[in-house]
Amino acid sequence: MKVYQTKIKRLAGSDQHEVYLKSREIYKRFAKKTKRKPYVRSVYFNKEKIFLDYFWEHLYQKNPWDRFRRLKYYACAIDLIQHSRIDPYSVQNPNRLSQVLHRFEGKSKEGDSFFVQITEDKRTNQKYFISVFPK
């Protein structure tokens, strides 16, 4: 499986609050551009919208240490979604047959590997950024 090399470094910070503020600032940049759901356009999906709001719902289901670990890769994940042309590993969601899960692998500027998960609803053809986590 090929890996996308981002040009972005992981978010720096020594505690969860500091990293949270930086990642939320990145999210707000996209939220300001639209009156509805914040999104980014993906090169891999032919410039289709990838909605960003489900990520935050998924994030708050995790424990604080895991949130901190995942938020460090938020900027890298956005860069990967926007610019990657590499085919992801795609599989039908076993829990919901109307969804396809796409898993992209990337490397931060420092060389740390991470995964980005995007779910696609087959009926509406909408795509949602669900998760980012280190390898």
Name the features.
135 residues, alpha/beta, 4 helices
What does this molecule look like?
The chain has 135 residues and is of the alpha/beta class. It has one domain. It contains 4 helices and 7 strands. Strands 1, 2, 3, 4, 5, 6 and 7 form a 7-stranded mixed β-sheet that branches. A hairpin with a 5-residue loop joins β2 and β3. α1 packs across α3. The radius of gyration is 14 Å and the shape is globular. The chain starts with a strand and ends with a strand.
Distance between the termini: 14 Å
**Residue runs with pLDDT of under 50 for 5 or more positions:** none
- Beta-strand content estimate: 25-35%
Based on secondary structure, the structural category is alpha/beta
Number of strands: 7
Largest sheet composition: 7 strands, mixed
Mean pLDDT: 92
Order of helices and strands: EHEEHHHEEEE
Query: What's the number of structural domains?
Result: 1
- What's the gyration radius in Å? 14 Å
Helix content: 25-40%
Query: How many H/I helical runs?
Result: 4
So what's the overall shape? globular
Q: Outline of this structure?
A:
The protein is of the alpha/beta class.
